[in-house]
Write a structure and sequence with these properties.
This protein is mainly α. It has 2 helices and 2 strands. The chain has a domain at about 45-74. Helix content is about 65%, strand content about 5%. A two-stranded antiparallel ribbon has the order 1-2. The longest helix has 28 residues, at about 45-74.
């Protein structure tokens, strides 16, 4: 009985989350001007890449630190 309830709960949670993550309608096309088409404004990705790389290096160091400390102790 307990496993059936947990499966039902997980299925319900998955369905509710999947409906919440449905795609949004597309943005209207970019504005046109006399000088030609203008590119739509987007989010800059430079800062996100830097944060991702910094976190990756920190995680790698965190995983390697215990290994190095045990090698030094021996």
């Amino acid at each position: 009985m307990k496993t059936n309830m947990s499966k039902l709960f997980l299925l319900t949670a998955f369905l509710l989350l999947s409906f919440g993550l449905m795609a949004q309608p597309p943005h209207p096309p970019a504005s046109h001007s006399q000088t030609g088409n203008q590119a739509p404004a987007g989010a800059p990705i430079g800062n996100g890449t830097l944060i991702l790389l910094t976190l990756a290096v920190a995680y790698g160091g965190w995983k390697l630190y215990p290994r190095r400390s045990t090698e030094l102790a021996e």
